[in-house]
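User: Fold this; tokens only.

Assistant: Input:
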Amino acid sequence: MQSPRPPLYFGGSSDAGIDVAVDTVDKYLTWGEPPAQVAEKVNHVRAVAAKRGRKLSFGIRLHVIVRETNAEAWRAADELISHVTDETAASAQKIFARMDSVGQQRMAQLHGGVATSFEISPNLWAGVGLVRGGAGTALVGDPPTIAARIREYQDVGIDTFIMSGYPHLEEAYRFAELVFPLLKLEQPGNVTPLRVNTGPFGETIANEHRPLVKASQS
């Protein structure tokens, strides 16, 4: 492969998917499972990669619903799926159940199609996954809460966050204005702040930290 080259990202929760990741890519991606489950997956992938003499970094795919207060954020989450009928949800869940994707199965297991269990972890809401395939969870809360949850994922090894919202543009503005000022984007060891880019579908991508080049003192 050419060098330098763009970093390759890949996600897959099955054993076969993990094998592909540790053999070929730079960054392993997971959907937004609770931090404890993400930590388990990160540790497993690291162990498989280490056996093959490779080292990967890690990213996560999440939706975000942030408002100035927690109450406002949860109202927005409820409104997002307020027009989803039981029939629509049941139809979507039947389609997801037929898929052989291990990642999709893990998403479905988080809520089991039961409306009363959508907050599957503190401020991690699985309502999106009721009718949306793929990434089906969102961080919901006020700015300090969202920032705290992001730090929890960082603590278990996540350095890249791929985030989106509904509608995306409005949620992106809210996130930038309300959450970015609360994030300690500089980490120990002299690193630059997160670089923020936009993905091919308009999603906000906060990329991994890069080492600082120290200026000469001469």
